[in-house]
Amino acid sequence: MNAFSDLSMKTDDVLRIELEVFKQEHRDLDEAITALVERGTGDQLTIQRLKKQKLHLKDKIAYIEDRLTPDIIA
Predict the structure, then answer these.
(1) pLDDT in tens, 29-41
(2) What is the 3-state secondary structure (H, E, C) of the chain?
């Protein structure tokens, strides 16, 4: 079972809380990547892994936001 199917079984309240947690993790990863690049202390593999993690979180955030936003056909 993938992460997105796990999210589909949760209530909107739980998803809102998880959305905030994922957004904070995304910001934290962004800060970590920036710090590693600026200091020159991170190797490329570590930075790429963090970027991939950040992208995965971005996908989760988009999925949750889409799920929480009702489809309105005008």
Answers:
(1) 999 999 999 998 8
(2) CCHHHHHCCCCHHHHHHHHHHHHHHHHHHHHHHHHHHHHCCCCHHHHHHHHHHHHHHHHHHHHHHHHHCCCCCC
Neighbours of 54 (CB within 10 A): 18
User: Is the torsion defined by CA of 19, 26, 58, 60 positive or negative?
Assistant: negative
Nearest one of 58, 67, 48 to 23, comparing CA atoms: 58
> What does the block give as tokens for 61?
């955030």
Contacts of 42 (CB under 8 A, 6+ apart): 33, 36, 50
Whole-model pTM?
A: 0.81
**Tokens 């999210």, residue located:** 7
Inter-residue contact 7 to 64 (CB < 8 Å) = yes
